[in-house]
Amino acid sequence: MLPPHSPLALAVSFFLFCIPAHAVESQPAGHLTVSEGRFHRAGKDFCGIGINYFDLFRRLVAPEPVSATRRSPREGLAILAEKEIPFVRFPACGFFPVELRRYVDDPEGYFALLDGVVAEAEKQGIGLIPSLFWAFFAVPDLVGEPMQAWGDPQSRTREYMRRYTKDMVSRYRGSPAIWAWEFGNEYMLESDLPNLISAEKWKVPDRGTPKDRGEEDRLRSSDVVSAYREFAELVRSLDPARPILTGDTVPRSAAWHLSRGLGFKPDSLDQSRDVLAESNPDPVDTMSIHLYADAARKPDYFRPQTPVGETLEAAMAVSTKIGKPLWLGEFGADPEKPAEARLEEVEEFVGLIEKLGIPLAALWVFDCDNPDIAAWNVEPGNENAGALEILRAANRRLRSQSITP
Protein backbone atom coordinates (compact mmCIF):
# COMPACT_ATOMS: atom_id res chain seq x y z
CA MET A 1 0.00 0.00 0.00
CA LEU A 2 1.22 3.52 -0.74
CA PRO A 3 1.84 5.81 2.22
CA PRO A 4 -0.88 8.51 2.23
CA HIS A 5 1.61 11.27 1.47
CA SER A 6 3.73 9.45 -1.11
CA PRO A 7 4.22 11.25 -4.45
CA LEU A 8 1.97 8.79 -6.31
CA ALA A 9 -0.79 9.00 -3.69
CA LEU A 10 -0.68 12.79 -3.84
CA ALA A 11 -0.71 12.71 -7.64
CA VAL A 12 -3.73 10.41 -7.66
CA SER A 13 -5.51 12.65 -5.14
CA PHE A 14 -4.77 15.69 -7.30
CA PHE A 15 -6.07 14.28 -10.56
CA LEU A 16 -9.19 12.88 -8.89
CA PHE A 17 -10.45 16.40 -8.29
CA CYS A 18 -8.77 18.58 -10.90
CA ILE A 19 -9.69 17.14 -14.31
CA PRO A 20 -12.51 19.19 -15.85
CA ALA A 21 -15.48 17.29 -17.26
CA HIS A 22 -16.34 17.68 -20.94
CA ALA A 23 -20.11 17.79 -20.65
CA VAL A 24 -22.58 17.40 -23.50
CA GLU A 25 -26.16 17.92 -22.42
CA SER A 26 -28.21 16.44 -25.28
CA GLN A 27 -29.80 13.00 -24.98
CA PRO A 28 -29.76 11.41 -28.45
CA ALA A 29 -32.36 8.86 -29.47
CA GLY A 30 -29.82 6.28 -30.65
CA HIS A 31 -28.92 4.77 -27.29
CA LEU A 32 -30.76 2.09 -25.30
CA THR A 33 -33.21 2.68 -22.49
CA VAL A 34 -34.90 0.34 -19.99
CA SER A 35 -38.52 0.33 -18.88
CA GLU A 36 -40.88 -2.37 -17.65
CA GLY A 37 -38.08 -4.92 -17.68
CA ARG A 38 -37.27 -4.47 -21.38
CA PHE A 39 -34.66 -2.75 -23.52
CA HIS A 40 -35.89 -0.08 -25.91
CA ARG A 41 -34.30 1.91 -28.70
CA ALA A 42 -35.88 4.70 -30.72
CA GLY A 43 -39.18 4.02 -29.01
CA LYS A 44 -39.32 0.29 -29.88
CA ASP A 45 -38.52 -2.92 -28.04
CA PHE A 46 -34.96 -3.88 -28.86
CA CYS A 47 -33.24 -7.23 -29.34
CA GLY A 48 -29.79 -7.50 -30.88
CA ILE A 49 -26.59 -9.54 -30.84
CA GLY A 50 -23.26 -7.75 -30.86
CA ILE A 51 -19.68 -8.77 -30.20
CA ASN A 52 -16.95 -8.09 -27.66
CA TYR A 53 -14.06 -6.02 -29.01
CA PHE A 54 -11.52 -6.32 -26.20
CA ASP A 55 -8.68 -4.51 -27.97
CA LEU A 56 -10.73 -1.68 -29.50
CA PHE A 57 -9.37 0.92 -27.07
CA ARG A 58 -6.86 -1.04 -25.02
CA ARG A 59 -4.69 -1.51 -28.09
CA LEU A 60 -4.20 2.28 -28.06
CA VAL A 61 -3.20 2.61 -24.38
CA ALA A 62 -1.23 -0.59 -23.76
CA PRO A 63 2.50 0.13 -23.38
CA GLU A 64 3.67 -2.64 -25.69
CA PRO A 65 4.04 -1.74 -29.36
CA VAL A 66 1.11 -2.68 -31.56
CA SER A 67 1.87 -5.06 -34.39
CA ALA A 68 1.58 -3.47 -37.81
CA THR A 69 -0.69 -6.37 -38.76
CA ARG A 70 -3.35 -5.43 -36.20
CA ARG A 71 -6.37 -3.39 -37.20
CA SER A 72 -7.02 0.19 -36.21
CA PRO A 73 -10.38 1.04 -34.59
CA ARG A 74 -11.48 2.50 -37.92
CA GLU A 75 -10.67 -0.72 -39.79
CA GLY A 76 -12.21 -3.00 -37.18
CA LEU A 77 -15.42 -1.05 -36.79
CA ALA A 78 -15.79 -0.79 -40.57
CA ILE A 79 -15.68 -4.60 -40.82
CA LEU A 80 -18.34 -4.95 -38.13
CA ALA A 81 -20.54 -2.32 -39.77
CA GLU A 82 -20.34 -4.21 -43.06
CA LYS A 83 -21.37 -7.37 -41.20
CA GLU A 84 -24.36 -5.51 -39.70
CA ILE A 85 -23.17 -6.01 -36.11
CA PRO A 86 -25.22 -3.47 -34.16
CA PHE A 87 -22.90 -2.84 -31.18
CA VAL A 88 -19.69 -3.81 -29.40
CA ARG A 89 -18.79 -4.23 -25.75
CA PHE A 90 -15.27 -3.10 -24.92
CA PRO A 91 -13.02 -2.09 -22.00
CA ALA A 92 -13.06 1.71 -21.95
CA CYS A 93 -9.90 1.58 -19.86
CA GLY A 94 -6.61 -0.27 -19.67
CA PHE A 95 -6.23 -3.75 -18.23
CA PHE A 96 -3.11 -3.50 -16.07
CA PRO A 97 -2.37 -0.58 -13.72
CA VAL A 98 0.40 0.68 -16.01
CA GLU A 99 -2.24 1.20 -18.70
CA LEU A 100 -4.53 3.10 -16.32
CA ARG A 101 -1.64 5.48 -15.63
CA ARG A 102 -2.19 6.95 -19.09
CA TYR A 103 -5.35 8.53 -17.67
CA VAL A 104 -3.55 9.76 -14.55
CA ASP A 105 -0.49 11.19 -16.31
CA ASP A 106 -1.99 12.54 -19.53
CA PRO A 107 -5.78 12.78 -19.35
CA GLU A 108 -5.95 15.07 -22.38
CA GLY A 109 -4.00 12.64 -24.55
CA TYR A 110 -5.90 9.68 -23.11
CA PHE A 111 -9.29 11.13 -23.96
CA ALA A 112 -8.08 12.21 -27.38
CA LEU A 113 -7.57 8.52 -28.16
CA LEU A 114 -10.97 7.54 -26.81
CA ASP A 115 -12.62 10.47 -28.61
CA GLY A 116 -11.35 8.96 -31.85
CA VAL A 117 -12.92 5.58 -31.05
CA VAL A 118 -16.28 7.14 -30.19
CA ALA A 119 -16.23 9.35 -33.29
CA GLU A 120 -15.47 6.36 -35.51
CA ALA A 121 -18.32 4.37 -33.95
CA GLU A 122 -20.65 7.29 -34.64
CA LYS A 123 -19.46 7.40 -38.23
CA GLN A 124 -19.96 3.66 -38.72
CA GLY A 125 -23.31 3.61 -36.94
CA ILE A 126 -22.17 1.05 -34.35
CA GLY A 127 -23.24 1.19 -30.72
CA LEU A 128 -20.69 1.10 -27.90
CA ILE A 129 -21.07 -0.51 -24.49
CA PRO A 130 -18.02 0.75 -22.57
CA SER A 131 -16.88 -1.19 -19.51
CA LEU A 132 -15.17 1.33 -17.21
CA PHE A 133 -13.25 -0.79 -14.67
CA TRP A 134 -12.51 -4.06 -16.44
CA ALA A 135 -9.96 -5.82 -14.20
CA PHE A 136 -10.89 -6.10 -10.52
CA PHE A 137 -7.32 -5.53 -9.32
CA ALA A 138 -6.24 -2.65 -11.57
CA VAL A 139 -7.63 0.40 -9.75
CA PRO A 140 -6.67 -0.73 -6.22
CA ASP A 141 -3.18 -1.59 -7.47
CA LEU A 142 -2.86 1.77 -9.20
CA VAL A 143 -3.71 3.78 -6.07
CA GLY A 144 -1.85 1.48 -3.67
CA GLU A 145 -4.73 -0.21 -1.87
CA PRO A 146 -5.90 -3.83 -1.39
CA MET A 147 -8.87 -5.26 -3.29
CA GLN A 148 -11.24 -4.82 -0.37
CA ALA A 149 -10.93 -1.05 -0.86
CA TRP A 150 -13.70 -1.48 -3.43
CA GLY A 151 -16.02 -1.81 -0.42
CA ASP A 152 -14.81 1.32 1.39
CA PRO A 153 -16.55 4.54 0.27
CA GLN A 154 -13.68 6.56 1.76
CA SER A 155 -10.93 4.72 -0.13
CA ARG A 156 -8.78 6.09 -2.92
CA THR A 157 -10.13 3.24 -5.05
CA ARG A 158 -13.68 4.57 -4.75
CA GLU A 159 -12.42 8.14 -5.29
CA TYR A 160 -10.86 7.01 -8.56
CA MET A 161 -14.10 5.25 -9.49
CA ARG A 162 -16.08 8.46 -8.94
CA ARG A 163 -13.69 10.66 -10.91
CA TYR A 164 -13.35 8.31 -13.86
CA THR A 165 -17.08 7.67 -13.99
CA LYS A 166 -17.83 11.41 -13.91
CA ASP A 167 -15.28 12.13 -16.62
CA MET A 168 -16.48 9.31 -18.87
CA VAL A 169 -20.22 9.79 -18.53
CA SER A 170 -20.08 13.59 -18.70
CA ARG A 171 -17.84 13.50 -21.76
CA TYR A 172 -19.71 10.91 -23.82
CA ARG A 173 -23.36 11.04 -22.71
CA GLY A 174 -24.12 13.23 -25.70
CA SER A 175 -22.90 10.63 -28.19
CA PRO A 176 -25.48 8.46 -29.99
CA ALA A 177 -22.81 5.75 -30.15
CA ILE A 178 -22.92 5.12 -26.38
CA TRP A 179 -25.69 2.60 -25.72
CA ALA A 180 -25.17 1.74 -22.04
CA TRP A 181 -22.67 2.02 -19.17
CA GLU A 182 -21.00 -1.06 -17.67
CA PHE A 183 -18.99 -1.23 -14.44
CA GLY A 184 -16.43 -3.97 -15.14
CA ASN A 185 -15.86 -7.64 -15.87
CA GLU A 186 -16.86 -10.57 -13.66
CA TYR A 187 -16.02 -9.10 -10.25
CA MET A 188 -18.35 -11.50 -8.44
CA LEU A 189 -16.47 -14.46 -9.90
CA GLU A 190 -13.37 -13.22 -8.07
CA SER A 191 -15.20 -12.75 -4.76
CA ASP A 192 -15.57 -14.70 -1.50
CA LEU A 193 -12.98 -17.34 -2.32
CA PRO A 194 -11.44 -18.89 0.82
CA ASN A 195 -7.91 -18.18 -0.38
CA LEU A 196 -5.96 -15.64 -2.40
CA ILE A 197 -5.95 -17.61 -5.64
CA SER A 198 -7.57 -14.82 -7.68
CA ALA A 199 -5.37 -12.05 -6.30
CA GLU A 200 -2.21 -14.15 -6.52
CA LYS A 201 -2.91 -14.90 -10.17
CA TRP A 202 -2.53 -11.22 -11.00
CA LYS A 203 0.91 -10.39 -9.68
CA VAL A 204 2.74 -8.80 -12.61
CA PRO A 205 5.00 -6.10 -11.14
CA ASP A 206 6.31 -4.91 -14.50
CA ARG A 207 2.68 -4.08 -15.39
CA GLY A 208 2.12 -2.10 -12.21
CA THR A 209 0.87 -4.70 -9.71
CA PRO A 210 2.51 -5.22 -6.29
CA LYS A 211 4.93 -8.07 -5.75
CA ASP A 212 2.96 -9.46 -2.83
CA ARG A 213 -0.69 -9.83 -1.87
CA GLY A 214 -2.29 -9.98 1.57
CA GLU A 215 -5.52 -11.08 3.20
CA GLU A 216 -7.22 -7.76 2.36
CA ASP A 217 -6.74 -8.61 -1.31
CA ARG A 218 -9.39 -11.31 -0.90
CA LEU A 219 -12.28 -9.53 -2.60
CA ARG A 220 -15.71 -9.94 -0.99
CA SER A 221 -19.07 -9.84 -2.72
CA SER A 222 -20.18 -7.20 -0.22
CA ASP A 223 -17.33 -4.98 -1.48
CA VAL A 224 -18.47 -5.46 -5.05
CA VAL A 225 -22.16 -4.81 -4.36
CA SER A 226 -21.24 -1.62 -2.52
CA ALA A 227 -19.21 -0.40 -5.49
CA TYR A 228 -21.93 -1.42 -7.97
CA ARG A 229 -24.53 0.58 -6.05
CA GLU A 230 -22.50 3.77 -5.89
CA PHE A 231 -21.49 3.47 -9.54
CA ALA A 232 -25.11 3.07 -10.57
CA GLU A 233 -26.25 5.99 -8.43
CA LEU A 234 -23.53 8.21 -9.89
CA VAL A 235 -24.20 7.18 -13.49
CA ARG A 236 -27.92 7.77 -13.06
CA SER A 237 -27.30 11.25 -11.64
CA LEU A 238 -25.28 12.09 -14.77
CA ASP A 239 -27.26 10.18 -17.40
CA PRO A 240 -30.95 9.65 -16.65
CA ALA A 241 -31.59 7.38 -19.61
CA ARG A 242 -29.00 4.76 -20.53
CA PRO A 243 -29.02 1.26 -19.03
CA ILE A 244 -26.53 0.44 -16.28
CA LEU A 245 -24.80 -2.95 -16.42
CA THR A 246 -22.60 -4.71 -13.86
CA GLY A 247 -20.71 -6.83 -16.42
CA ASP A 248 -20.86 -9.89 -14.20
CA THR A 249 -21.22 -13.56 -15.04
CA VAL A 250 -23.30 -16.48 -13.82
CA PRO A 251 -22.32 -17.18 -10.20
CA ARG A 252 -20.23 -20.08 -9.02
CA SER A 253 -22.07 -23.23 -7.99
CA ALA A 254 -21.28 -22.41 -4.33
CA ALA A 255 -21.58 -18.61 -4.53
CA TRP A 256 -24.41 -18.31 -1.98
CA HIS A 257 -22.52 -20.40 0.61
CA LEU A 258 -19.20 -18.70 -0.11
CA SER A 259 -20.70 -15.24 0.38
CA ARG A 260 -21.85 -16.33 3.81
CA GLY A 261 -18.56 -17.91 4.85
CA LEU A 262 -19.84 -21.46 4.55
CA GLY A 263 -17.27 -22.78 2.09
CA PHE A 264 -17.67 -24.70 -1.17
CA LYS A 265 -21.05 -26.25 -0.47
CA PRO A 266 -23.34 -26.58 -3.49
CA ASP A 267 -26.09 -24.01 -3.68
CA SER A 268 -29.69 -24.96 -4.26
CA LEU A 269 -31.37 -23.60 -7.38
CA ASP A 270 -33.22 -21.03 -5.27
CA GLN A 271 -29.93 -19.94 -3.69
CA SER A 272 -28.33 -19.60 -7.11
CA ARG A 273 -31.27 -17.48 -8.24
CA ASP A 274 -30.90 -15.32 -5.14
CA VAL A 275 -27.23 -14.72 -5.94
CA LEU A 276 -28.11 -13.65 -9.48
CA ALA A 277 -30.51 -11.07 -8.09
CA GLU A 278 -28.09 -9.93 -5.37
CA SER A 279 -25.30 -9.50 -7.93
CA ASN A 280 -27.31 -6.88 -9.83
CA PRO A 281 -28.46 -4.55 -7.02
CA ASP A 282 -30.66 -1.50 -7.43
CA PRO A 283 -30.29 1.04 -8.93
CA VAL A 284 -28.64 -1.22 -11.55
CA ASP A 285 -31.56 -1.68 -13.95
CA THR A 286 -30.39 -4.78 -15.85
CA MET A 287 -29.17 -8.29 -15.05
CA SER A 288 -25.78 -9.40 -16.40
CA ILE A 289 -24.46 -12.88 -17.08
CA HIS A 290 -21.73 -14.50 -19.17
CA LEU A 291 -21.98 -18.09 -20.40
CA TYR A 292 -19.88 -20.47 -22.50
CA ALA A 293 -20.66 -23.83 -24.04
CA ASP A 294 -18.00 -25.59 -21.97
CA ALA A 295 -19.32 -24.33 -18.64
CA ALA A 296 -21.55 -27.33 -17.87
CA ARG A 297 -18.58 -29.67 -17.54
CA LYS A 298 -16.84 -27.43 -14.99
CA PRO A 299 -17.47 -28.47 -11.36
CA ASP A 300 -17.62 -24.87 -10.11
CA TYR A 301 -20.06 -23.79 -12.83
CA PHE A 302 -23.38 -22.12 -11.91
CA ARG A 303 -25.35 -25.38 -12.12
CA PRO A 304 -22.91 -28.27 -12.84
CA GLN A 305 -23.92 -30.69 -15.59
CA THR A 306 -26.72 -28.35 -16.66
CA PRO A 307 -27.12 -27.72 -20.41
CA VAL A 308 -26.61 -24.18 -21.63
CA GLY A 309 -30.26 -23.86 -22.61
CA GLU A 310 -31.47 -24.67 -19.09
CA THR A 311 -29.07 -22.15 -17.60
CA LEU A 312 -30.29 -19.45 -19.96
CA GLU A 313 -33.90 -20.33 -19.10
CA ALA A 314 -33.09 -20.03 -15.38
CA ALA A 315 -31.43 -16.66 -15.93
CA MET A 316 -34.37 -15.39 -17.98
CA ALA A 317 -36.74 -16.49 -15.20
CA VAL A 318 -34.78 -14.48 -12.62
CA SER A 319 -34.61 -11.52 -15.01
CA THR A 320 -38.38 -11.58 -15.41
CA LYS A 321 -38.98 -11.98 -11.68
CA ILE A 322 -36.85 -8.97 -10.71
CA GLY A 323 -38.01 -6.89 -13.67
CA LYS A 324 -34.56 -6.30 -15.16
CA PRO A 325 -33.77 -7.20 -18.79
CA LEU A 326 -31.07 -9.82 -19.31
CA TRP A 327 -27.68 -8.79 -20.69
CA LEU A 328 -25.68 -11.80 -21.92
CA GLY A 329 -22.45 -9.85 -22.07
CA GLU A 330 -20.31 -12.78 -23.22
CA PHE A 331 -21.17 -16.06 -24.88
CA GLY A 332 -19.01 -18.46 -26.84
CA ALA A 333 -18.14 -21.98 -27.88
CA ASP A 334 -16.09 -24.66 -26.14
CA PRO A 335 -12.46 -23.68 -26.90
CA GLU A 336 -11.30 -27.29 -26.78
CA LYS A 337 -13.42 -28.32 -29.76
CA PRO A 338 -12.32 -28.05 -33.40
CA ALA A 339 -13.25 -24.94 -35.38
CA GLU A 340 -16.19 -26.47 -37.23
CA ALA A 341 -17.75 -27.68 -34.00
CA ARG A 342 -17.19 -24.29 -32.38
CA LEU A 343 -19.10 -22.55 -35.16
CA GLU A 344 -21.94 -25.03 -34.72
CA GLU A 345 -22.02 -24.17 -31.01
CA VAL A 346 -22.12 -20.44 -31.78
CA GLU A 347 -25.08 -21.07 -34.08
CA GLU A 348 -26.80 -23.13 -31.39
CA PHE A 349 -26.20 -20.36 -28.85
CA VAL A 350 -27.69 -17.78 -31.21
CA GLY A 351 -30.70 -20.02 -31.74
CA LEU A 352 -31.26 -20.21 -27.97
CA ILE A 353 -30.91 -16.44 -27.65
CA GLU A 354 -33.62 -15.95 -30.25
CA LYS A 355 -35.87 -18.74 -28.95
CA LEU A 356 -35.77 -17.53 -25.34
CA GLY A 357 -36.07 -13.88 -26.26
CA ILE A 358 -32.80 -12.81 -24.65
CA PRO A 359 -32.82 -9.14 -25.61
CA LEU A 360 -29.12 -8.25 -25.57
CA ALA A 361 -26.09 -10.49 -26.10
CA ALA A 362 -22.49 -10.21 -27.29
CA LEU A 363 -20.25 -12.94 -28.71
CA TRP A 364 -16.70 -13.29 -27.38
CA VAL A 365 -14.44 -11.94 -29.11
CA PHE A 366 -13.45 -9.90 -32.22
CA ASP A 367 -9.90 -9.15 -33.45
CA CYS A 368 -8.00 -10.03 -30.29
CA ASP A 369 -4.35 -11.06 -30.53
CA ASN A 370 -4.07 -12.68 -27.08
CA PRO A 371 -2.86 -16.25 -27.80
CA ASP A 372 -4.67 -17.55 -24.70
CA ILE A 373 -8.02 -16.89 -26.33
CA ALA A 374 -7.17 -17.70 -29.93
CA ALA A 375 -9.87 -20.37 -30.11
CA TRP A 376 -12.52 -17.68 -29.54
CA ASN A 377 -11.00 -14.96 -31.72
CA VAL A 378 -13.21 -13.99 -34.66
CA GLU A 379 -11.87 -11.99 -37.60
CA PRO A 380 -12.10 -12.10 -41.38
CA GLY A 381 -10.03 -14.88 -42.88
CA ASN A 382 -9.51 -16.97 -39.76
CA GLU A 383 -11.17 -20.26 -38.83
CA ASN A 384 -13.85 -18.52 -36.77
CA ALA A 385 -14.82 -15.94 -39.42
CA GLY A 386 -18.12 -17.69 -40.07
CA ALA A 387 -19.39 -16.43 -36.72
CA LEU A 388 -19.74 -12.95 -38.23
CA GLU A 389 -22.14 -14.31 -40.83
CA ILE A 390 -24.08 -16.13 -38.11
CA LEU A 391 -24.51 -12.84 -36.24
CA ARG A 392 -25.42 -10.97 -39.43
CA ALA A 393 -28.18 -13.48 -40.22
CA ALA A 394 -29.51 -13.38 -36.64
CA ASN A 395 -29.71 -9.59 -36.57
CA ARG A 396 -31.50 -9.60 -39.92
CA ARG A 397 -34.07 -12.01 -38.48
CA LEU A 398 -34.53 -9.76 -35.45
CA ARG A 399 -35.05 -6.74 -37.69
CA SER A 400 -37.62 -8.64 -39.73
CA GLN A 401 -39.60 -9.21 -36.53
CA SER A 402 -39.97 -5.43 -36.16
CA ILE A 403 -37.50 -5.30 -33.31
CA THR A 404 -34.93 -2.80 -34.35
CA PRO A 405 -31.17 -3.47 -33.91
The largest β sheet comes out as: 8 strands, parallel
Total strand segments = 11
CATH topology: TIM Barrel
End-to-end Cα distance, whole Å, is: 46 Å
What's the arrangement of strands in the largest beta sheet? 8-7-6-5-4-11-10-9
Count the DSSP helices. 14
Write the layout of secondary structure elements.
Elements: H1 7-18, E1 32-35, E2 38-41, E3 44-45, E4 48-52, H2 55-61, H3 73-82, E5 87-91, H4 97-105, H5 107-124, E6 127-133, H6 138-143, H7 156-172, E7 181-184, H8 197-201, H9 221-238, E8 244-245, H10 255-259, H11 269-278, E9 287-292, H12 308-322, E10 326-332, H13 339-356, E11 360-363, H14 386-400
Parallel strand pairs: 4-5, 4-11, 5-6, 6-7, 7-8, 9-10, 10-11
Antiparallel strand pairs: 1-2, 2-3
Helix pairs in contact: 1-7, 2-5, 3-5, 4-5, 7-9, 11-12, 12-13, 13-14
In short:
The chain is of the alpha/beta class.
Structural notes for this entry:
The chain is an alpha/beta fold and 405 residues long. It has a single domain, classed as Glycosidases (TIM Barrel, Alpha-Beta Barrel), CATH 3.20.20. 41% of the residues lie in helices and 12% in strands. It contains 14 helices and 11 strands. The strands form 2 sheets. The protein has an 8-stranded parallel beta sheet. Helix 11 crosses helix 12. The protein starts with 6 loop residues before the first helix and ends in a 5-residue tail after the last helix. The N terminus is likely disordered.
